[in-house]
Amino acid sequence: MNSALPKITALVHTRNESAWLAGCLETLNWADELIVADMTSTDDTREIATRFGARIIDMPLHPVVEPVRNLALSQCTHDWVLIVDADERVPASLAEHLRTLAKTSPASAIGLPRKNFFLGEWLEHGFWPDHQVRFVRRKQINWPTLVHEPPKVDGQQINLEANPAWALEHPGYGASLSRFIQKFVHYSRLDAERQAATVKPALWPYLIRRPASEFLGRYLGQQAWRHGMHGLVWSLLQATYQLLVACHYWDLQRGSQSVPSAETLRRETRNELGRTLLKWFRT
């Protein structure tokens, strides 16, 4: 190991990840410190971590990982930390580039491109580069408690060039259709709570605009159609997720936001669909 290069901690969050963890840890054997932050796993996740020489730290069980990251980061040794999910992989080309970045980059947080695989196919169109803030200086970043909220960074934040050789690989993103849908059901309520706590969009246009825009934006705008049936099914599922979020948001907001009459709602729903379609066919 080149002692002139800054040392890096690889941090993996787990909760019953025995199916994926070994494959992940195999791609992190270059790290100077390997930590598995485990949220009370009941399978053999911890045994696998021990086999790979990881230091296991106990994390409280939480429905989302963001708040747990702050606690885990505080227990890392080195300044630079690479945060990895158990169903992700770090190719050697990315690992080598991270070594260089740790020595030369003035940034406090770096967004890494990520290759997401849906039923075995890389979604190069529709979901690339999907930058994720994962390479960070541990004392200069803080995650909020809400799901899918970006972290607060003390210093410069940059995104790495969208080069597939420098991308995290995410084979577990959509490896199982049933698990993929279960995750949508779980996160949709949490995402709705985030909407209610932050942007608070107008209720009834959100129900129409967001799912329609999601499908058209992914399938046509970002050309997910190039993936054939994979792209069509995935785009429809993305729209379905946004619909679930919107329905949960409606449930949370009932009684606190005014809703038009049934007749007005029918007319405005038709108009909103028309505006959304016109917008995307013009792009």
Give a verbal description of the structure.
With 283 residues, this protein is an alpha/beta fold. The chain has helices at residues 21-26, 45-51, 66-73, 92-104, 177-197, 203-221, 229-253, 262-282, and strands at residues 8-14, 33-38, 55-58, 80-85, 109-112, 114-118, 121-122, 132-137, 141-142, 152-153, 157-159, 168-174. The protein has two domains: 8-172, Alpha-Beta Complex (Spore Coat Polysaccharide Biosynthesis Protein SpsA, Chain A), CATH 3.90.550; 176-282, no CATH class. The chain contains eight helices and twelve strands. α6 packs antiparallel against α7 (229-253). The mean pLDDT is 92.
What average pLDDT do the residues reach?
92
Overall strand count = 12
Give the structural class.
Answer: alpha/beta
Rounded radius of gyration (Å): 21 Å
CATH architecture of the largest domain: Alpha-Beta Complex
- List segments where confidence is low: pLDDT < 50 over at least 5 consecutive residues: none
Domain module count? 2
What fraction, in percent, of the residue positions are helical? 40-55%
CATH topology grouping of the largest domain:
Spore Coat Polysaccharide Biosynthesis Protein SpsA, Chain A
Number of helices: 8
Q: Strand share of the residues?
A: 15-25%
CATH class of the largest domain: Alpha Beta
CATH homologous superfamily classification of the largest domain:
Spore Coat Polysaccharide Biosynthesis Protein SpsA, Chain A
Which overall shape is indicated by the principal axes computed on the Cα atoms? globular
Order of helices and strands: EHEHEHEHEEEEEEEEHHHH
**How far do the termini sit from each other?**
50 Å
With strands numbered from the N-terminus, the spatial order across the biggest sheet is 3-2-1-4-8-5-11
Largest sheet: 7 strands, mixed
